Amino acid sequence: MDRYIIRKDDLNRWVEALARTQEVIAPTRVEKEIFFAPVQTGIDLNLLSGTAVLPYLPAKDLVLPHSENLFKFTKKGGDYEITVPEDKKTTVVLGIRSCDTSGIFWLDKFYQENFSDCYYWQRRNNLTLVTMACNQPAKNCFCVCCEGGPFLDSEQGEFDIQLVDLPDSYLVECKSSKGKALIEANSKLFAKADPSAVKTREVLEDKSRKSFPPDPTSYMSAAIRRITSNAVTPETWTELGEKCFDCGGCAFVCPCCSCFGVGYLNEGEQGCHYRFWDSCDYSGFTREVSGHNPRGEKGERFKRRFFHKLSYQYLKRDGRIGCVGCGRCITACPGEVGMPSVVERLRK
Amino acid sequence: MFVRTQDGEARGVLPITAHPVSQGRLCHRGWNRFQNLRSVNRLVKPLVRDGEGMKETGWNEALKLSGEKIKDLIGKHGPESIGVIGSPWLSNEDNYLVSLLARQVIGTKNLDGSYRFGAAATLSALNQLYGEGIGAAGSIPALKDSPAVLVAGRDAHRDFSPVGSRIVQAFKQGAQIILADASTGKADHFYKTFIPVPADRLPAALAAKRDISSEVLDLLGKPGAGLVFVADQLNPSASVLALINYLIAHRASAKDLPNILALSRSPNLRGAWDLGIRPPAGGLNLEEMLAPESKVKGLLVFAEDLSVHLPKAALLEKLKKLDFVLWAGRFKNDTAQGAHVVLPLPLFAESEGTLTNCEGRVQVSRPALSPRGECRGLSEVLPELAQALGKSLPGGPAAAIRKEIGKAVPGYEKIAGPEVESEAGALLAPPRLASAPSKPAVLPALESPDKFLLLIPNTLYAWEKNRMIAESPVLCIEYQAERPAVKMNLQDAKDLKFRPGEKAKIRSERGELQVALQADEGVPRRTLVLSSHFLNLVEGVAGKGEIDPLTRSVYFPSMLVTVEKA
Asked: pTM for this structure?
């Protein structure tokens, strides 16, 4: 891994230089909301500071959009012509937070587990992630409980580039060839980091780990143990399920949720096949054609969701739990049963 | 919420976290809302009848033909031979113009909305209480600080997530949450008090303190207490009025009114009601317009698919008898099949307009997409139709029509101001009691040891015909078509030795019905539930139903019946 320093004044110069050759996406304020959106120049450095800023949707939306056309078909004579959309543009995501980066690396595993999903990988291979470490977590953050942040581990963590907001500059940690290419193309803006910067990084990370708000931080290990050993009673799942609105919001805003459904739009002799985010909250998610539903009750669906997220069976297989601690489910859940409150309930 | 687009197509939605009502949270219909925006079943060109089928035509021709037909009917049979149907699926601006078209241009009093205008009983009761301007009778954000919340009609907090979310928050803060619902045997755990009685018997149950303690009733009388009406389940209006009057009479402070929210699944039902989409005195309602002996010869239907409320065959039969049917809407459907002229309208996401939510908040919906094909908004179309009839209607941009509404509609002054354009929209003025609470007229409880209680809830929609549902691959699985069957408690079905799907003979004082029986764990003991959507079945056992004198719509009261094997 290489470490550099870039002056704060030079960050926008780097963005401008990157934007000349590829798409640059960064957290952007639109009215009162924050989205990941394309930028050209002058990005809002307040959204790229050490204080965590999380757009409503995670950056998974950039590799697995809410909906996307898989192919279009048109009848030509006795046959059909199939057109598969191509997305060859290279993209840099600047200011993605540690949790979202961890989420994308988790999705990578899913989308190459049994087969390589060409739509996902077409975008993923052209995406470089410039992560911003969080010196100060936001009010719903609990990544510290899930190994999702606030900093990605310099040696063990998976990232292309990680920026750390130092008092007068950014420490730039580069781990991948894609990240290295971004730095080498603009090498004049970067200087080798000295040991004091690395020392400051350690202090900031330590301070950040100690500054998480008490509410969302959760005893994941206790919940993992109780779910894995089947110690959670059916009544508890029913109680939690009764608060779930089956809206699917938690799955849609979760950086780790990967489920999708597919549909057709037929119009005469042409149409398209598309996919869209789906959710295990929905009663139709597992309903069979016969009408039988193995998880017809809300409590059963809720149990399945959290078993997949937290049980040791999946932790062992995937190397991490299915939560990166971004806290978006707290914002999206109308029933107030986001991950922290569920973990809190389960561990009792 | 925002609609996210790519290449001119809707690709997703995004909630608004700063919105005071949604707070960044959506229900499952909201999250999948973009899918029907891509529907291939949209109407994109005006159509006119051509024998048994329809053929495409131009706007000028379609409007000219409509004008001639309407003029001809008015000339032959008078303006009352025309019926006009507005819709909670239209914006306030569009409904206002539809209402003006009926009253001022055509001169007919035959103006109505949905066939079983779901919340008519509740909204009529509120009109009795508060006068014409119901205003901001409730507050969704304030619900979370309520000392007690009574949810009456049905446990539907999931269907109305902003309200349901506040109910869960109130529960977490220690509020007493009460559910009054006769069609379920068990309430979710956060309903600390469960009153399993039908809506029409609820005032009696409260008065007799059945299933509810004095302490809980006292909490309901405290300032800020919430009344959440799943309005399409509450009938008749006299019962709703009795319930509100009972609670108002028991409030701790004379100056505080309860926080009343009348919920409906239609996006702009409250707006349609306030903007006058209901029959005025002397006018016919939709049922009367479609009755065999009706004087109505021509029907102008705006955005309402009548087959959502009537079986397709019955609807087409009724429409066939009319001399002229105009249907202006968004999708190809059964009503369009029975029309003589079809006009394509843009969706909410393709046009600007305001909607009024259940708390009386008026918000602007702005276009995220261009209108599909040749779709045109009613603010353009209706003035042209009026011109074809030799009259005039205001038109132009939505903001100009809002100014007209602000002057003409009681309580809607704020719709013309800048506040309505803000992210949070404009809350209408709070209402005042127009009449002193009357002594509630209460019905006694229905009980008989050897009989079953038959409930005929208003399902409001055949969900599978709702385009928002049908056009979404996710939602059409979530909302399965209901089977024409009567639901009975699983244990009761076992006790009576019914096999799955076996037919039951249900007998009441009004009639008899043979219908498949569906065992359901969720139904309470000694109770049967038959959806009012299956009108032919319902009428078998319940006759023609009762007419609510205030709303003049039909409803089916709960009744005692006997059940045996067919």
From this structure: 0.93
Q: Which of A57, A265, A333 sits opposite B40 (nearest CB)?
A: A265
User: With contact defined as beta carbons under 8 Å apart, do B374 and B44 qualify?
Assistant: yes
Amino acid at the residue B475: L
Using CB atoms, pick whichever of A278, A282, A334 lies closest to residue B25. A334
For the segment(s) B452-565, the CATH number from 1.10.1040.50, 2.40.40.20, 3.40.1190.20, 2.60.40.3360 is 2.40.40.20
Quick check: A295 contacting B, CB < 8 Å?
no
- The percent of chain B in helix, strand and coil, each rounded to the nearest 5, is 35, 20, 45
Q: Do A262 and B473 make contact, defined as CB atoms within 8 angstroms?
A: yes
Which residues contact residue A134 at a Cβ distance below 8 angstroms, ignoring those fewer than 6 apart? A50, A51, A52, A97, A98, A141, A143, A149, A150, A151, A208
Residue B323: how many CB atoms within 10 A of its CB? 15
Give per-residue pLDDT as tens, A218-277.
889 999 999 999 999 999 999 999 999 999 999 999 999 999 999 999 888 899 999 999
Q: What is the dotted CATH code of the domain comprising B39-106+275-427?
A: 3.40.50.740
Query: What ipTM does the predicted assembly reach?
Result: 0.94
Q: Please write the tens of the pLDDT for every residue from B45-78.
A: 999 999 889 999 999 999 999 999 999 999 999 9
Cβ of residue B168 closer than 8 Å to a chain A Cβ: yes
Residue A278 sits at the chain B interface (C-beta within 8 Å):
yes
Instruction: For residue A130, give the 3-state DSSP assignment.
Output: strand
* B12–A contact, CB cutoff 8 A: yes
> B30–A248: do the CB atoms touch at under 8 Å?
no
